[in-house]
C-alpha cells in the first residue's frame, strides 16, 4: 500500500536521486546544457533550501521512495515524478490529486505546470490543457499546461 508523507530535509538525498534518475530516463535526448541546469536545480542542498516553503510530498511503498510531487502557493505544480517500476498504478494521479487539493485550499482558481513531452498524455488525462506549443527553457523541452476550476 502506498503511503503519502510530507518532504523533510532528511529525505533530500533520496528525493534528489529519484528525480534525477527519472529525468535522465525520460529525457534521453536532452542537451548537456539542459541536463546541467536540471541537475543543478535538484541537488539535495537546493531541495532543502527551496522545498520547505512549498507543499512537497513523497509516495512510499513500505518506506521505499517511489514518487514525489511539489506545488507552490502561486498555483504552480513543479514536480510529479514516479519511479518507472511503479507507473500505471495510479501513484502519479494520487500525487496530483493531493497537490491539487492543497492548491484549491490555498484558493487557486487555476493550476499551471510545465510538462515534459514524456508526461503530456498523463496530464491531459487529468484535465490539463496545453497553453503553449513545445518550447525550451534552459534547453529543456516543455509544454505549459493549465487546469481551471
List keywords for this structure.
eight-stranded mixed beta sheet; single chain; alpha+beta; 149 residues; 5 helices; Aminopeptidase
Shape: globular
User: What is the third-level CATH name, the topology?
Assistant: Aminopeptidase
Beta-strand content estimate: 25-35%
**SSE order:** EHHHEEEHEHEEE
Mean pLDDT: 96
Oligomeric state of shown chains: single chain
Terminal Cα separation, in Å? 30 Å
Instruction: Please identify which CATH superfamily we are dealing with.
Output: Gcn5-related N-acetyltransferase (GNAT)
Largest sheet descriptor: 8 strands, mixed
Low-pLDDT ranges: none
Q: Rg to the nearest angstrom? A: 14 Å
- Total domains: 1
Query: Briefly, what CATH class?
Result: Alpha Beta
Structural class: alpha+beta
Which percent bin holds the helix content?
25-40%
Count helical runs: 5
The count of strands amounts to 8
- Second rung of CATH, namely the architecture: 3-Layer(aba) Sandwich
Can you describe what's shown?
It is built from five helices and eight strands, in the order βαααβββαβαβββ. With 149 residues, the chain is of the alpha+beta class. It has one domain (2-148): Aminopeptidase. The longest helix has 15 residues, at 12-26. It is globular. The N and C termini lie far apart (30 Å). The relative contact order is 0.16.
In brief:
The chain is an alpha+beta fold and 149 residues long.
SSE layout:
Elements: E1 2-6, H1 12-26, H2 32-41, H3 44-51, E2 55-61, E3 64-72, E4 76-82, H4 91-105, E5 110-115, H5 120-125, E6 129-130, E7 135-137, E8 140-148
Parallel strand pairs: 4-5
Antiparallel strand pairs: 1-2, 2-3, 3-4, 5-8, 6-8, 7-8
Helix pairs in contact: 1-3
Amino acid at each position: 500500500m502506498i503511503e503519502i508523507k510530507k518532504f523533510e530535509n532528511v529525505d533530500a538525498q533520496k528525493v534528489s536521486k529519484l528525480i534525477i534518475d527519472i529525468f535522465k530516463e525520460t529525457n534521453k535526448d536532452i542537451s548537456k546544457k539542459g541536463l546541467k541546469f536540471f541537475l543543478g536545480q535538484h541537488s539535495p542542498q537546493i531541495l532543502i533550501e527551496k522545498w520547505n516553503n512549498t507543499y512537497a510530498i513523497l509516495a512510499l511503498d513500505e518506506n521505499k521512495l517511489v514518487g514525489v510531487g511539489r506545488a507552490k502557493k502561486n498555483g504552480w505544480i513543479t514536480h510529479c515524478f514516479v519511479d518507472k517500476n511503479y507507473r500505471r498504478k495510479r501513484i502519479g494521479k494520487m500525487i496530483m490529486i493531493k497537490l491539487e487539493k492543497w492548491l484549491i485550499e490555498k484558493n487557486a482558481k487555476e493550476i499551471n505546470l510545465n510538462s515534459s513531452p514524456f508526461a503530456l498524455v498523463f496530464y491531459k488525462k487529468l484535465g490539463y490543457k496545453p497553453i503553449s506549443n513545445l518550447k525550451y527553457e534552459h534547453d529543456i523541452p516543455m509544454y505549459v499546461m493549465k487546469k481551471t476550476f
